[in-house]
Amino acid sequence: MKKISPDISLRELALRVGRVLKDAGIDGVLSGGAVVSIYTRTLYQSFDLDFITHSSLKDLEAVLSPLGFIRKGRLFMHPDTNFYLDFPAPPLSVGNRPVSEFKELRDGSGYLKLLTPTHCVMDRLAAYFHWNDHQALEQALMVARAQRIDMEEVRSWSEAEGMSDRFHTFHDRLE
Question: What is the CATH number of the domain that holds 42?
Fold first, then answer.
């Protein structure tokens, strides 16, 4: 597996961290903009990798410090890369809906558990719906154009969130 260095890609780093978490018995799921970066092959580039886990920051520090990560609050920085790790509080949800379906990637000795493309779109749309984040809408569109998503699931979830009008904005822009 590639050493953490200035030229490591977000995907490579995510696979490396995912493997280390899994090997330590920590169930971590990548969410947020890093998933957008992976699904769009860096058409959108995030610099933070948001892993949702039920582990304590102390346990995470014990697992990540051998890789060279330094803890600063809930963030973990590495001196050899501009990417950083964040551990937002669980549970993992998109809007008001808990997420229980995931995708897994394996590459060489790397491993990563992450949101499915459909849930990634819903995650980005949640930011657009509830915080009026137009950059998140653009990210949702990028993923929907690059990956196969379940549009009916996105539509029904949007209705349950009370956001049918904003779903139609997304859908119309996608067409």
Answer: 3.30.460.40
